[in-house]
Amino acid sequence: MPSLICSSNYGEQVKKQVLECLYGQEQLKGPSMISAMQPTLKAITREELLKQEDKDVKVLLAFCFSETLRITAPNAPFGDDVLRDIFYLIFSALSGLRDLHSKFYRRRVSMLETCANIRFCVLMLDIECDDLVTTMFRTFLEVV
């Protein structure tokens, strides 16, 4: 994967490079797929990406993480601390579901479906993030 460079078209670079790798990918069938995903996983967990202020980049990154968790379920390929940050990012992105006309609405709906299908709440409880479960339900109630 080409290196991601911070620039004015940073969001587009992230979108093209990472979404192409993840979107539509079936669930992993073996350890060789996890090895194949390592460059992508390393790229999307870079601190400068996780700390991005651009809202579009945050939504796209949350979608990438959601897809990664779907593909690798039931085993998340991230440490507990990174996973906690990922869930906060995903729920932050899901708060935009109330905007039905957003260019990312369909991606947010897809993240919501993934959240239900792979049971994010169970993953959060497994890593002892009870506060995240509260955040998740608060986000969903605010959107409704």
UniProtKB/TrEMBL annotation:
<keyword id="KW-0234">DNA repair</keyword>
<keyword id="KW-0539">Nucleus</keyword>
<dbReference type="GO" id="GO:0005634">
    <property type="term" value="C:nucleus"/>
</dbReference>
<protein>
    <submittedName>
        <fullName>Uncharacterized protein</fullName>
    </submittedName>
</protein>
<dbReference type="GO" id="GO:0006281">
    <property type="term" value="P:DNA repair"/>
</dbReference>
<dbReference type="Pfam" id="PF20168">
    <property type="entry name" value="PDS5"/>
</dbReference>
<dbReference type="InterPro" id="IPR039776">
    <property type="entry name" value="Pds5"/>
</dbReference>
<keyword id="KW-0227">DNA damage</keyword>
<dbReference type="GO" id="GO:0007064">
    <property type="term" value="P:mitotic sister chromatid cohesion"/>
</dbReference>
<dbReference type="GO" id="GO:0000785">
    <property type="term" value="C:chromatin"/>
</dbReference>
